[in-house]
Structure formats: structure tokens, C-alpha cells
Amino acid sequence: MSETILPELPQELWRAGKLELAHGVQQFLQVIRVATAGLGQYLAEIESRGAKDLYGYGSTATWFADVAGLSFGEARPVVNRALALNPTRGLDGTELPAVAPATAAAAAEGAVGNERIQQILDFLASLPLDTSAEDRESAEKTLAELARHAGPRQLAEAEQNILGWLDPDGAEPKEPEPKQPRRELTLERRKDGFWKLNGLLDDEAGARTAAALEAHAAPRPVDEFGQADLRTKPERLGDAWVDLVDLAIACPDQPGTSGYRTLVHVTIGLDELKSGLGTACVDYVGTMTARDARMAACDCLMLPVVLNAAGEPLDVGRLRRFVTPGQRRALNIRDGGCAFPGCHRRPKNCHAHHIHHWADGGPTDLRNLTLLCGFHHRLIHHGDWQVRMAADGLPEFIPPQYLDPLRRTRRNTLHRAAA
Fold first, then answer.
1. How far apart (Å, rounded) are the C-alpha atoms in residues 82 and 114?
2. Which element (helix H / strand E) includes 198?
3. Across the chain, which distance is largest between two alpha carbons, in Å?
4. Other Cβ atoms closer than 10 A to 320
5. Alpha-carbon distance 380 to 375, whole Å?
6. Which of 13, 117, 121, 141 stands the most exposed, by the fewest C-beta atoms within 10 Å?
7. What is the pLDDT along the chain (419 residues), one digit of tens a residue?
């Protein structure tokens, strides 16, 4: 990679003439393009060695997103262009040639930018599968040379001409894809504790839903005491909906419920549990009386989480390696999801991680456990991030030095903010 010298800015830019301004823009544009090409070579080398082995990340794009302060969606096209323009190596060490070497040469000289590079790569990806390697190479060289001086429209016209030469008959007509059914559903909890359900279904789904509801919404027959079903039609449909939900949850193949008819988490203080007075928290969002909690347990699986006077769930010592169901529920309440800074993953998507490894003498109790999603769990084990338990009993994370030279501790505030 040739050395690129940054142009000097005039001390008083407002005095510069129009030719000097234009020349400065062209110089800086070339510097940006050359620097981008050099960045691509580094990213391709990281891809060849493996971002997981180097830094503990599952992909080069994920690592680059963290280093550059980008979202994954912003980092991915940068890495993809880098891999298309530069040779890489496979797992067995075999060199994999670049997809567009002529375009890469023009990029390294600062002659083309990301927009024209992506236009050429998109065209190469659209070529028929039976296009020979020689034709692909010839087309890429032609477009790369043209892109040095042409704009997007000229390049698009050249691509159409090349495609007409390579595939004069065009693609075979395809049957139209069936339309995606339009189905929408919103569920929100109101301030009064009720939940509001709104939906929009296509004709087929609506007919199936109506048939299922009607089957469960039939009025109850008059009982032996002559008492008729006094529910209104909307009330019967509401009860029918609950029946259908219970049936679905009771299915053994239903994810997340293991076939339990209903699963309710009830968080209650020790004093309230003993006296039967006061309120309890249902599934971390609603409230119910202690007496109602006892009643709910008659028809569902109620999982009590008992708190001491300090508001902390009870710990379990080092007798067990695996986290008990009670500890897992306590972790869900404390961390609210993946504890890694900035992660939105909910508790059901997380693992319980031993901060001080169990094999090294770390106990299986709450002060040595934290919730991590699969990605951040691997990152802590194989990367340069570190986690520790702070004095207030909450986990905090120390970033690697290449992300923060001062290695200042960080926490995930998203779950607590939501609570």
C-alpha cells in the first residue's frame, strides 16, 4: 500500500480561490478512498485469521462494529466490500482470490469510492450462474476501468450492455410469488392493569380464528338450578380467547412453557408471605393480593420468589454446580436480561454465567452469577472483556484496552430503565 500524505489546509480557508477549493476536495477525497482501501486489507486479514480466535467475536463485522462504534447493519457492508476486494484464506490455509481484483486496484489508487465499488459488486452478483470465469473477469476489468472516470448512470448503461452480451435471452420468467398474508397484532398493558388486544387478519386467518372462538364461546347450558349463562357475546368471546391460549400453552411442543398450563411468577416479601396481607408482584409487571396469589395457585403453576427484608432473594451455596430454578428466577429479576452493557436480550435468551468459574472454586450463588446472552457469554469466555460483581451486588463489565484505554467499568442500564 503506497504512502498517502494528507494535504495541508490553508490557514485562512475563506481566502482560497475556487480552483484551490476544488483541488483540496479532490485531494481529501483521494485520501479517504485510499484509507478505506487500506482499512479493507486489515479487515480481510482479520477475517482470514478469524475474529473469534483473535478477539473472541463471532464475526469480523461484529468486532468491527464495536471498534468503530457502528451498528452491525452499518459495519457489515464495509466488511463485505473488504472481503470482495481482497484475497483471504480458508480454514485450511488455501488462498481465496478476490471477487473484484481490478476494482480493488482502482480503489487502492483512490480512483473509485464505495458507491461505484458496490455498484460493480452488485452487478457481478447478478450475473447468471453459468457465466464463465473468463467472462466475469473481463466484465469486472471493463467496469473497473470505466468507473475511474464515469458516473453511476454511465456505469449502469455499460452493465446493461455487458449483460445483454453475456445473457441475450435474459432470465427465465418465474411464477409470481404468492403475497405474504397480512396479519397484525398488538398487545399492550393499560394503566388500570387490563391488557388491550388489537389485530388485523387476512380472510383465511380471520375465518379460522372466528371458527375457533365460536366453538369455545357457545353459551353454557342452563344448569340444574335453572341458572342460564348471563355473559354477553363479547364476554364469551373473551373467555374463549383465554381458553385457546391455555390450550396452546399446555401443548408439550410449546416453546418456553414445557407444557405447563399456566406459568405465573409471584414475587412477595417474607412478611407478606407469612401474614397473607399486602400485595405481590405478578410476572414482574402487575400486582395482586397475597390471598389472590394463593387462589391463582389452584389453577396454574405459581413460582414464588421470596425476598428478605433487604429485598434480596435467598442464595444457594457451593453444594450445586448447576443453577437451581429458584436462583434462575432470582437472576431474571435482578438482571432483567443480559447484563452486558447495551444488550437488549431478555432473560429467556440468556445463560447463567459464573463470574468466578465453578471449577476454580467459584460458588453457585447470586453474588457469583450473572445473566449473559449466548453471544456475550462467548465473548466473556474467549474475548478480552471482563466481568466482576460490584460492591452493591450488581455485575459490572471492564472493556478491553483497545476499546477503552482507561478500561472504565460499564453496566447495562436498559433493563432497569425499562423497569
1. 10
2. strand 195-200
3. 100
4. 13
5. 9
6. 13
7. 445 566 677 678 888 888 988 988 988 999 999 999 999 999 999 999 999 889 999 899 999 999 999 999 999 999 999 999 999 998 788 899 999 999 999 999 999 999 999 999 999 998 888 888 899 999 999 999 999 998 899 999 999 888 888 776 655 555 565 566 678 888 888 888 788 888 888 887 888 888 888 887 878 666 444 557 777 888 888 888 877 876 676 555 555 444 444 455 556 555 554 555 556 565 544 566 655 554 443 334 444 455 555 555 543 333 344 677 788 888 989 999 899 988 887 887 788 888 887 656 778 888 999 998 877 887 888 888 999 999 998 999 999 988 888 999 999 988 864 44
Pairwise CA distance, residues 294 & 80, whole Å: 57
Q: How many CB atoms lie within 10 A of CB 240?
A: 17
Q: Provide the b/e sequence for 387-399 (b: ≥16 CB within 10 Å).
A: bebeeeeebbbeb
3-class DSSP assignment, residue 136: helix
Length of the chain: 419
Give every CB contact of residue 119 below 8 A, 6+ residues apart in sequence.
147, 152, 155, 156, 159
Query: What does residue 17 show for φ and ψ, rounded to 5 degrees?
Result: -80, 175
Cell 480552483, located at residue: 19
Grid cell, residue 154, equals 454511465
Continuous H helices in 232-338: 233-249, 270-275, 290-296, 325-335
Q: Give the angle subtended at the CA of 10 by the CAs of 6 and 11, to the nearest 5°.
A: 125
Nearest partner of 336 among 394, 386, 388, 262, judged by Cα: 394
Cell numbers given for 70: 457502528
> Could you tell me where the beta strands, DSSP code E, fall in 249-366?
263-269, 279-282, 286-289, 301-307, 350-354
Q: Answer yes or no: are the C-beta atoms of 57 and 382 closer than 8 Å.
A: no
pTM beyond 0.85, yes or no? no
Amino acid found at 265: H
Q: Which three cell numbers stand for residue 115?
A: 458507491
Assign 374 to helix, strand or coil: helix
Torsions phi, psi for 373 (to 5 deg): -70, 170
